[in-house]
Amino acid sequence: MTRFTQAIRRHRETTRQERELNRALRSASGSDMRSELVFLANAGR
Q1: For the chain, which residues make up each domain, given as ranges?
Q2: What is the mean pLDDT of residues 3-28?
């Protein structure tokens, strides 16, 4: 049951991070800023 709980927590964390990235991309001022955000998000994975 512990692995199942850990999987749920990982999924929730990943989903939260994706929502934060999408929110940041929507509010980014230009394409350079969006590119930088995507780069940073990919580097963190």
Answers
A1: 2-43
A2: 94
